[in-house]
Amino acid sequence: MSYDLVIIGGGPGGYNCAIRAGQLGLKTAIIESRGKLGGTCLNVGCIPSKALLHASEYFEAASKTFPSMGVKITGLELDLPQMLKQKEDAVDGLTKGVEFLMRKHKVDYVKGFGAIAGVGRVEVKLIDGGSQTLETKAIVIATGSVPTPLPGVDIDEERIVTSTGALSLKQVPGKMIVIGAGVIGLELGSVWRRLGAEVTVVEFLDKITPTIDTEISTAFQRTLKKQGMKFELGHKVVGVEKASGGLLVSIEPAKGGAARTLEADVVLVAIGRKPFTEGLGIETVGVKTDQRGFIPNDHFKTNIDGIYVIGDCTTGPMLAHKAEDEGIAAAQAIAGQWGHVNYDVIPNVIYTDPEVATVGKTEEELKAAGIEYKTGKFPFMANSRARTNHETEGMVKVLEEVATKKVVGVHMVGAGVGEMIGEVCVAMEFGASAEDIARTCHAHPTMSEAIKEAAKGVDGWTMQA
Measured between alpha carbons, how far is 41 from 328 in angstroms, rounded to an integer? Predict the structure, then answer.
């Protein structure tokens, strides 16, 4: 089989690259070893975790929030098998939808493990047995990432789990220890806390969500603690022992000190993810990787002509939407068109309750770069819609560069801010100032008015607080 483009990996980066290539008239094939398209994100990541987050929010709201709003419920109980089933139903429907999109755009879908067997050649070990060789003018590596293991801790995906196992626990653990206070750990820890688990998060650093603006991170942790989540910051896990009655987790201060033992029924290892490049045959053609295993790129091109890379297995934030944009841009570049991704405007969202949404530079980054900036803030406590919805936790923070009068960062923690961040991304793409946002009419009463008020604050004329 001969193609214009062969994509190895069927996640968000890969399948969006395939769709765009098909739209542009390139004869395209996509290879996926899982047997289902969508990658980690759709199968065991973004989508199933959001299904559980949404369902568990309903469960907790029914018991804790509804009574204060005049809605009384008796006989409330958890049906965990049904909650897990609706998650799987969502995943199944979406994976079939992606497969339909391949057919719609005349992309050949090859089920198997693809490896580069030379310049312009990909060998596929088919899931159903045998092999197939694809000849191609261009190759896109879109193989994503896998959970980073913790040395000395054996994952069984039953009691000691990664995010994959944490999405399918057969019962609510009495005690769960989450290793790592990043996005994955806090999201899945929130799910099981809402359903009844006692959750403790162990983090090596002295703050949660270490890449996020410190003021937002601090406010976020304060809210999670109020909800009942416990934290052991500045600690590392040195061992997990399986005992008949549960798990014994040994932790000690990151800076040195006496070890302590915590008890748990389930341990979630969520210390990050690493690029997946094993067995891809990149060494056969000399594709380089850096010290961390990522494949560097120059405008999506590797160091070998005709081989491109996108998504988690290359540099940049490990986010599905970043991979999607790269996939589209790479397809267009391969087709001889423009292809561009603005890495300064890639939003990041944590889908807890409240949510955290950020885009652009943090205060810490601006200070480190010596960039003069102005700040505007607004608390949701002063937002009328937040007050009526009983969703007053959090704030909006807008950062504007003094020299250019451009908004260079916006950071939010609050209900639904994951949807609100899109407004700011559009504004930043167009080079908006804080005044541009402040003078744009926002519907009242809405949560998004908090963005407008924070933008006013940059120039000192916040009106509603």
Answer: 17
Over the stretch 452-462, which tens digit does the pLDDT of each residue have? 999 999 999 99
* Domain residue ranges in the chain: 2-147+274-334, 160-271, 348-458
Q: In the numeric block, which tokens belong to residue 88?
A: 């799987």
Structure tokens at 234: 């500045």
Distance CA 265, CA 191 (A): 16
Please give the positions annotated as active site.
444
In terms of C-beta density within 10 A (0-12 exposed, 13-18 middle, 19 or more buried), how is residue 291 classed?
A: exposed
Compute the average pLDDT of residues 423-451: 98
Question: How far is residue 261's CA from residue 282's CA, in Å, rounded to a whole number?
Answer: 43
What is the pLDDT at residue 1? 82
Which 3-state string (H, E, C) describes 210-259? CCCCHHHHHHHHHHHHHHCCEEEECEEEEEEEEECCEEEEEEEECCCCCC
**Fold of the CATH domain 2-147+274-334:** FAD/NAD(P)-binding domain (3.50.50)
Report how far Cα 78 is from the mean position of its chain's Cα atoms.
27
Distance CA 130, CA 124 (A): 9
User: What's the pLDDT band for 245 if we cut at 50, 70, 90?
Assistant: confident
Structural domain 348-458, CATH architecture:
2-Layer Sandwich (3.30)
**Share in percent of the chain as helix, strand, coil (round to 5):** 35, 25, 40
Tell me, yes or no, if the pTM score tops 0.90: yes
User: What region, left, alpha or beta, does residue 113 occupy, with left being phi > 0 and alpha being psi -120 to 50 degrees?
Assistant: beta
C-alpha span between 102 and 21 (Å, rounded):
11
Domain 160-271 has what CATH class? alpha beta
